[in-house]
Write a structure and sequence with these properties.
The protein has eleven helices and eleven strands. α6 packs antiparallel against α9 and α7 runs antiparallel to α8. The two termini are 86 Å apart. Among the domains are: 182 residues, Cytidine Deaminase, domain 2, CATH 3.40.140; 51 residues, Membrane-bound Lytic Murein Transglycosylase D, Chain A (Roll), CATH 3.10.350.10. The chain is α/β, with parallel strands linked by helices. The strands form two sheets. A nine-stranded mixed sheet has the order 1-9-2-4-3-5-6-7-8. β6 and β7 form a beta hairpin.
Length: 438
């Protein structure tokens, strides 16, 4: 968390004072609203190393920096620390003697002339624990004031907290800020008190805070880039899954439609083949029946010719008239008639038999014609009945009423269709359903 406060006049006091706070800041915990604590990263690094040098005993240092107020709230900027290596916390408390304070002020004069004492540091093995009440007395005696704090840490695991004196006791602060800057005074102090370490090693060490901050920033950038990539991949994957689902559903629907169409075409083809076969059989039967009818017609014609032939009596009258007109021919005819009369019994018998046969044949011909007409009517009715298909595939929007009217031309076959197909509800049929027709 970074706070931006702008300073118009550094010497201005009161609630209108504006501070120029550090820009590169990392928040630890939840800082208090009535006190803002800022500590520079070099100081944290130095105190960690100082505490680990004697991890089984306590170590003490004095915190230096600047204190400002804005809106009645103290802002503490801890920029340096002076280690008191010969001082230790024991049963008798902490002996802040004149020699100790002389050492502190000597370091302030040499390295940190523009800074003030803002509190103290104490490393305690086994922290966190309840603080000794004597520490509050020591804090009040040597570091009294609302702008003074105590920093307590565990030397091995480095669990650190800030305390401030409030309501008669040391109260733990919920959070603070670590800020980053080129703290040249602290770098020089760290190099000079490095216990024989080389300048090269110290110079490498003094850039550690900046590199740490840059590493943190870069890690955040990399994490942000990874999040963007993951978001993009997630979105793209979701889109591809949706596309695949849509394509799959479309293919399934098309397959079902094509299968239904194929079934409908197959049913129509079988129906047409069945109708063609039945029509061919009907036409063949009609052709066979037409043969006897023709012969009957011929017999009828022969009978009509026989009926038109003049009776023997009528023929004699004609011959008489002809004889009257030609005497010679009449005499010849009479002579021939006598000869014929002698043969009359046999001829008459034959003529009578032939006439009876002709009459019988004429009657048979008439009966045969009537049978032919009746057979043609039956064939026509059979042909008309065979046009009804055996099955029907339900189309979109069909009902049993429409199907009955379409196939039979009336509404009388609905119950028969329901009974044949086991349909309980005549209004419930599905597109593509195959129905058996009565």
């Amino acid at each position: 968390m970074i706070e931006f406060v702008y300073k118009e006049n550094a010497k201005e006091t009161g609630p209108e004072l504006q501070l120029d706070l550090p820009k590169n800041v990392r928040q630890i915990g939840e800082p208090e609203e009535n006190r803002k604590i800022y500590i520079e990263d070099y100081v944290i690094t130095y105190l960690k190393r100082f505490a680990k040098e004697e991890a089984l005993s306590s170590r003490i240092a004095v915190l230096l920096g600047n204190s400002e107020r804005m809106g009645g709230i103290p802002y503490l900027f801890i920029r340096s620390a002076v280690a008191l290596k010969d001082l230790e916390y024991g049963e008798g408390g902490i002996p802040f003697t004149d020699e100790v304070w002389a050492q502190v002020y000597s370091a302030i004069k040499e390295y940190f002339p523009a800074q003030d004492i803002l509190g103290w540091f104490l490393s305690v093995p086994g922290y966190p624990m309840e603080l000794d009440p004597d520490l509050a007395t020591i804090h009040v005696n040597y570091f009294g004031g609302v702008d003074k704090v105590l920093m307590v840490a565990e030397p091995t695991d480095w669990d650190e907290d800030f305390f401030a004196y409030e309501n008669g006791r040391l109260t733990r602060q919920k959070g603070y800020y670590i800020f980053y800057e080129r703290n040249e005074a602290m770098q020089r102090y760290m190099i000079d008190t490095g216990d024989g370490e080389s300048i090269d090693e110290k110079e490498h060490f003094e850039d550690r805070a900046i590199k740490s901050f840059r590493t943190i920033v870069q890690e955040k950038k990399d994490l942000s880039g990874q999040k963007r990539v993951m978001t993009f991949l997630y979105t793209a994957s979701t889109f591809l899954v949706m596309v695949v689902l849509v394509i799959g559903i479309t293919l399934i629907n098309n397959y079902e439609k094509m299968e239904g169409l194929e079934m409908a075409l197959s049913d129509i083809s079988r129906t047409l083949e069945s109708q063609d076969g039945e029509t061919g059989e009907t036409v063949s039967a009609a052709a066979d029946a037409s043969g006897p009818a023709d012969s009957s017609e011929e017999s009828g014609e022969e009978q009509a010719d026989a009926e038109e032939t003049p009776e023997p009596d009528g023929g004699s009258g004609t011959e008489e008239n002809a004889g009257a007109e030609n005497p010679d021919e009449t005499a010849a005819a009479e002579s021939a008639a006598e000869t014929e009369n002698e043969q009359t019994p046999a001829a008459e018998t034959q003529d009578q038999g032939g006439g009876q046969d002709a009459e019988v044949e004429g009657t048979d011909a008439q009966e045969g014609g009537a049978q032919t007409d009746s057979s043609a009517a039956d064939i026509q009715q059979a042909v008309s009945q065979n046009t009804v298909p055996e099955t029907y595939v339900v189309q979109q929007g069909d009902t049993l009423l429409k199907i009955s009217r379409k196939i039979y031309g009336n509404d009388d076959q609905i119950d028969a269709i329901c009974s044949l197909n086991g349909i309980d509800d005549s209004d419930h049929i599905l597109a593509g359903q195959k129905l058996l027709l009565p």
